[in-house]
Amino acid sequence: ATKGEMPIDPLRMVAKEMKFLTGNIRHLLGSGHPSLDRAAKYYTQAEGKHMRPMIVLLMSRATALCPKASQPDPSETTQRINAAISPSGVLRDANPSAPLAGFSSDPESVESDILPSQRRLAEITELIHTASLLHDDVIDHSVSRRGSPSANLEFGNKMAVLAGDFMLGRASVALARLRNAEVVELLATVIANLVEGEFMQLKNTARDERNPKWSEETLTYYLDKTYLKTASLISKSCRAAALLGRADATTVEAAYAYGKNLGLAFQLVDDMLDYTKSDKDLGKPAGADLELGLATAPLLFAWKTIPELGQLVGRKFEQEGDAARARELVFQSDGIEQTRALAEDYCRQAVAALDLFPDSEAKDGLVEMAMKTLRRQK
Ligand code: FPP
Ligand code: MG
Ligand code: MG
């Protein structure tokens, strides 16, 4: 389609593949234990944004047109990965030579430029993300998610944590069946990175002092944490998508750079919306970060010009009135505007990373995903 004629809709470009995403994920999560089954599938009921799998699918399609690596894929069984799920949803023992079973797809899509392994990667990416949300809602004592009661509220902390663990287990099985050691290593690293990011977030600053002073390190720490917590999953799954498509090294790096910059922009916008939106707008509690003691980008930028925020950061906004005072100071500063500007900058870098890709509808879709990230209201 010519630009300007029709608005670019990234979802339309991978709609055929997306149609099977939730069903396939629920299939991967099947358990013979009824309450585990219910808890594990709970967050797949409400329609999530599915931003991560969409990016993986668009990246798969966009990189299909890029130069290929000269080395052959070490695993020629990649296309058989979808075997070994019985109709009851219980995973059988690995059998790499089994036919493609239990993997719903449109018969037409056999000719698609998106490989079955890349679709499976999109599902695994969403599984890891959803598992992290189950754990996150326990850690954050969150009561709502995607406009419904959170899993911890619905099932209790113990079941929510175990459902998240189960999900990671099933994601790992599906990942192993891709028969690509580099991709397994990437996604396993993501799981470790999510935990590292969450640990960094438990402290607001690198040295965890009582009365910290603002320094350039304040922002570095926040951005490192943000990479681990959010951008690692997006960037490494983009990288994995390119690898599964046997793209050459330059393309693989570009895919990674796109995901990394987009992931950073995504979290900056998230941290901004936490200040500017209501619970109802977001479908989850707003203003949650200060309540949780977290100093995110808007506050860190405000702190640079308002040193009194240091004390509040140091005691994690826990005294009566701290959160309200911090909020007021953020709105007096240009913290929100600076956060937006930084998010825009990362978006520009994400789009620039795609420069070397040949023009395609999927590439336009990836550019549009970056623009959507800046425009989103929830
Ligand atoms: C949402 O952040 C949470 C994350 C991006 C990652 C959370 C990671 C963990 C809990 C580590 C354990 C994860 C695994 C997979 C073992 P948020 O709380 O800022 O966003 P929210 O407003 O959507 O809750
Ligand atoms: Mg949370
Ligand atoms: Mg959290």
TrEMBL record:
GO terms for molecular function: metal ion binding; prenyltransferase activity. This is Hexaprenyl pyrophosphate synthase. Keywords: Isoprene biosynthesis, Magnesium, Metal-binding, Transferase. The chain holds residues 73 to 450 of 450 of the full protein. Its cofactor is Mg(2+). The keyword Nucleotide-binding does not apply. One of its GO terms (biological process) is isoprenoid biosynthetic process. The keyword Zinc does not apply. One of its GO terms (cellular component) is transferase complex. Belongs to the FPP/GGPP synthase family.
